[in-house]
Amino acid sequence: MNMTGAQSMVRCLEEEDVSHIFGYPGATICPFYEALYHSESIQHILVRQEQSAAHMASGYARITGKAGVCVVTSGPGATNLITGIATAYMDSIPLVAITGQVQSYLLGRDIFQEVDITGAVSPFIKHTYLIKKAEDIPRIFKEAFHIATTGRPGPVLIDVPIDMQEAEIDFSYPEEVNIRGYKPTINGNLKQLKKVVKTIAAAERPLICVGGGAFCAKAQEQVRQLCEETKIPMVTTMMGLGVLPTSHPLNIGMIGSFGHKTANMALSQTDLLILVGARVGDRAITAPEKISSQSKTIHIDIDPAEIGKNVNPTVPLVGDLRAVLESLLAEHPISNCSHWSEYLQQEAAAEKATMPDPRPDTIQPKRLMAEIGKQITADACVVADVGQNQIWAAKYLSMRQGRFLTTGGLGTMDMLCLLLLG
């Protein structure tokens, strides 16, 4: 079927079941917008500044689990996406950013609104494409969505010169993706799984630490089963809040410099730390070398680059978190940590029940967060902007079946409303 490159871009989005995109029109992306006008299945959300498009697409992706899509023009339009792309990269959010670009035969001449956006974002993006042949558009879009949503999720950028959008092509959308060199590991190594089971059985004070990777892999149920079947207590990073309800007896709390006292105490006393989809940066574990020296560590992650980055693992295990935990549960791991678990549960319950008395005629922020937690619905989504308010909400606002959305990597401020709108 013959159509323009711009029309094929819209068809590609329709083939990927994209229902919402966030963007701001401009000169070099106009052919795409003209083609988008005729789409009956894609709703375009017009923003007032391009950075908003990236953050709204990020919020959409965090809740739906699908890739968020943002579309902008070249030059300053593209550079305004950079903070949103970096935020998505640090938080492992699937994002497809589409940027217009000047004519391909003028690239490198520093003409009006020309920016090397693929080079500009290269340090903090999963992959980038510059369309050089219009007939490559279907393949590149198929690959972009595949890369963004598989393995460790992340942002992918497609830079499309305006003459590629105007060119005629014979459209055919690929059914499969086969990218040389990109084969994410899904199932964990069986020998390593056996080691995990043995290491858990030998531990007296095991502790599960869950990060945002549990949500990326949709593995909340598997985490709950692992905790309940083994009776191993669990702590979370800020990005892992909500994996288990705050009131769950095995949920000891959030670790880190702004975390719960009992959770940090458990971290300092454990003899086996099981890291589940967590990179445990400096705000989560301030002295990783102490953890490595005092306890064994099992680290489960989809991204091999994260394993050993901050804490040296005794048993590394690479794979999709949901698939790995299902395989681990099938091995029926046994833990003998009842005294340790009961002790931490008692300490955590006492800490959570303690609330400082407010000063007269003042609103105590900690108590306010606790009261909000009591009032919200069980499936409420809590969105916290960066700052002290984020710390109060993370520590004192109880989660049940909903999500706690924030940026734990880049720490981007003023994106609260944009995540909500997305």
TrEMBL record:
Q: Which GO terms describe its biological process?
A: isoleucine biosynthetic process; L-valine biosynthetic process
| Cellular component annotations (GO), alphabetically ordered | acetolactate synthase complex
Q: Which InterPro entries match?
A: DHS-like_NAD/FAD-binding_dom, THDP-binding, Thiamin_PyroP_enz_cen_dom, Thiamin_PyroP_enz_TPP-bd_dom, TPP_enz
**Thiamine pyrophosphate enzyme N-terminal TPP-binding domain segment(s):** 3-118
Q: What is this protein called?
A: Acetolactate synthase, large subunit
Question: Which reaction equations make up its catalytic activity?
Answer: 2 pyruvate + H(+) = (2S)-2-acetolactate + CO2
For this protein, the record's Gene3D superfamilies field holds: 3.40.50.970, TPP-binding domain
Domain (Thiamine pyrophosphate enzyme central) spans 193-328
From what superkingdom does this record's organism come? Bacteria
In its UniProt entry, the species of origin is given as: Anaerotignum lactatifermentans DSM 14214
Q: Which family does it belong to?
A: Belongs to the TPP enzyme family.
Q: Which GO terms describe its molecular function?
A: acetolactate synthase activity; flavin adenine dinucleotide binding; magnesium ion binding; thiamine pyrophosphate binding
